[in-house]
Predict the structure.
Amino acid sequence: MPNTNFDRDTLRELADEGNEMALDRLADLADAAGDLGELSELLDEGSPRAGVLLTRRAVASGDLRELQRISDAGFEGAGHELDRLLKAPAAPNLAMSNSELEGDPHLAPPSGHPAHHS
């Protein structure tokens, strides 16, 4: 079985010569190492794989600004994810007090069921 543990320098040389698979492998290595700076550089070099990996991280953390940055760098998938997140219904504010609930007729408990006071 062939050795598939290539060194970074060789991958970088191949990527610099236009080899997209080497660029993708560098993105995977950067992701595994948690090196967001290198992933961002690879995205700027045109690596779609870096775009996928950065988008996945931004979605997981809910980072809308990062999704916009990735989209602006040319990775359309980030723009789609940003749109999806922005179109999602907003979560209700679960920290509302009972007095706030009682003051809003749309949120007050049904008649005959007093609000719970803490």
